[in-house]
Amino acid sequence: MRITTMATDETTAKPIPEVELPRSLIFTLDKIPEPWGIKDLESRFVYANSALVKLFNVKSRADIVGKFDHEIASKLTADNAVEFVRQDNQVISMKRDLITLELHPNAVDYPHIVRKLPFFNEDEECVGIIGYSKNLEVCSLNDYVKGSMPGSLILNPPDDLFSERECEILFFRLQGMSAKDISERLCCSTRTVENHLQIVYQKAGVNCLASLKEFCINKDYHRYLPKRFMTKLRINFDKKECQSI
């Protein structure tokens, strides 16, 4: 099965590579219970399995295939089309996978992990994006996080600027928590948290919380969920679940 995109890359004036989907791939994805989808380089869907149709809450694949996110009559895509395209562009430009935790209570009753990967043809050209979604069971979210989490969380750090410990403390600081509150969550001393925060501010080149938030938004750190909060596909933010750092 071959699906051809007729658009042209304006930056190079070259036709966008064709997206060729082997029948064996389609047959396999059709049998998988998790939602799977494939897009071309313009973020237009060229494939959707039945599980993705169900996730989007539309009638059939025809409501997805051949369309952009903003053209699909789904609450999930209607409110998040711009962000989804931004993610697609990141995968295409970086030629690497992107893992996000999607929280969209107005469209889907449960959080789900989405992994998007570059889709290559036989000539090793990136011709699109392939991605899948997997349900996530949530144990608890603390009150701070409930009110201010972005719709999409990433599960791999944007870069190597901060250590994982610094990211853990940064995560709670961005929710407006004090050093004392953070220390109680992470079962460490307030001084330890303050020392880490000082290093975070220095690395970011800022000297106030407002500037730190702006820095994190620009770098996508406001969407990074540190690994320690993920345990057996559950998010743990409870004080009683803390470990020493």
From TrEMBL:
Example GO biological process: regulation of DNA-templated transcription
Record-linked CDD domains: LuxR_C_like
GO molecular function: DNA binding
Domain of life where this protein originates: Bacteria
Residue stretches making up the HTH luxR-type domain: 155-220
InterPro entries documented for this protein: PAS-like_dom_sf, PAS_4, Sig_transdc_resp-reg_C-effctor, Tscrpt_reg_LuxR_C, WH-like_DNA-bd_sf
UniProtKB keywords: DNA-binding
Protein name: Transcriptional regulator
UniProt source species: Candidatus Regiella insecticola
